[in-house]
Design goal:
By secondary structure, this protein is mostly helical. Helix content is 47%, strand content 11%. A 3-stranded antiparallel beta sheet has the order 1-3-2.
Length: 74
């Protein structure tokens, strides 16, 4: 079984749903939706109101957050 960080080269972009993001971050789905609404977490809003989170964009935001924390800017 592959982990979230393992992708085949040249594969299609991977999208996560809110439950998967919440599980990955060990946060609630409500927290994920609130951060998506404010733009803190990158997401796409689908017809019907559902959201999908581009995996690569999400990882880039998390890396920036980690870097900011290491520098003490957050």
């Amino acid at each position: 079984m592959r982990t979230l960080s393992q992708r085949a080269p040249h594969s299609q972009p991977r999208f996560l749903n809110a439950a998967q993001v919440a599980d990955l971050l060990d946060m609630s789905e409500d927290w994920v939706y609130e951060r998506a609404k404010t733009g803190e977490l990158p997401s796409l809003k689908l017809p019907g109101g559902r959201r999908r989170f581009p995996y690569d964009d999400l990882m880039a935001v998390l890396e920036t957050f980690r870097d900011d924390r290491r520098r003490g800017t957050r």
